Amino acid sequence: MLRLEFQPWGETMAELIDATRRAEAAGAVAAWAPELHRNALVTATAIASQTNLLVGTGISLAFATSPMLTALAAMDLDDLSGGRFRLGLGSGVRRLNADWHGAAFDPPVKRLRETIAVIRKVWAGGDPILHDGTAVSIDVRGWRRPYAGGATPIYLAGVGPAMVALAGEVADGWLSHELCPPSVLRESVLPALGRSGRRVDVVVSACCSVDASSAVARRRAAGVVGFYASVSSYASLFAAAGFAAEQEAVVAARRTGIPADRLGHLVPDEMAAAFTLCGTSQEVALAVKAYDGLADAVKLSAPTHGLAPDEIRAAQDSLIELIRELS
C-alpha cells in the first residue's frame, strides 16, 4: 500500500512542528526535514522529539559537513527517536556546495559513494576506523562509541542516471526530485534503480496543491515549476513532457533578472499539472493513485515558491486535510 509522508513548512519551528503533528493525526506515517532555509538534522531532531512519526532528512547535504559528523548526528537521532530515523543524503549541485558551503563537489557520484562507506564504517565502530578513498578518506584511532546504534537506513536523492543507479547499488531507499511524474519514474528511474538487482524503498517527492478551485490550485503550484524550469540543466525533463518552448521562455525571463521564485506566471496550467499534484481533492487523489505500484511512498509538500506566508499556510492546511481523506 502506498504510504503517505509529509514535508512540513513553517515560518517558525513551532509552526513547523504544529503542522507535522496535525499531519500525523491526519494519517501521515513519516515526516521529512529539508535542508535549505533550515538545518535538516536540527529540524529532524525537533520532529523526532515531538511526534511518533518516522523521521528523515530530505535531504541533508552530504558534502557540506564531514562524514564522521554526519554519522554521529545520525547515531544520535537513531538513539533519540528509538530507531525511527532515516538518513536522507544528496549531493546538491556544484554551485551550492562551492558558493554556500565552501565544500568540494567533484566527482559527485564517487564522493557520495565514499561518503556513505565512511558513515557506515563509523557506525560499525572498531579501532581504528580507516578509509583511504580517492575522494574521501578517514583515519580515526582511539575512539569508541559509548553506546550502540547506527543501523539507520540511508536514502539517496538522485536525478541523473548515475546517481539513481548509485542509490540502487548502495542505499536502502531513493528520494525523488520534487518534479517526478509517474512517467519519469516508470521509464527512467526504476530501470536505473533496478540494475543492481537490489530492492530499495522508493519515495516520490511531490509538490501538492489542493483547492476547491482547480485554477487556484494550479496557480499556487506554478511557482515551484517555474523555479525549476529556470535551470537550464532540467531542459531534457521539460522537453520530454512537451514543454521545451515554455521552459525556454522561463530561462529567458530569469536571465533578465526576474527572481527564480517569481516565474510562475510563465507556467501554463497544463505544465503545472504535468509536474505537480494540483487541483481539487478528487483530482489530486487520482494523481496520487497514479504512483501506486511504482513507488512505495509519496512525500507531499505544500507549494511555497512565489507565495506569501498566508497562502502557504492555506495550501498546507488543505494538504493536511487531503492526507486525512486519503488515509
Structure, explained:
One of its GO terms (molecular function) is oxidoreductase activity, acting on paired donors, with incorporation or reduction of molecular oxygen. The chain has a single domain (3-212, 280-326), classed as Alpha-Beta Barrel (TIM Barrel). The chain is α/β, with parallel strands linked by helices and 327 residues long. The chain has helices at residues 13-26, 40-50, 67-81, 94-101, 108-124, 161-170, 182-193, 214-229, 235-240, 244-255, 269-275, 281-289, 309-326, and strands at 3-7, 30-33, 54-57, 60-61, 85-90, 129-132, 137-140, 154-157, 173-175, 201-210, 277-279, 297-301. The N and C termini lie close together (11 Å). The strands form two sheets. Strands 1-2-3-5-8-9-10-12 form an eight-stranded parallel β-barrel, surrounded by seven helices. Strands 6-7 form a two-stranded antiparallel ribbon.
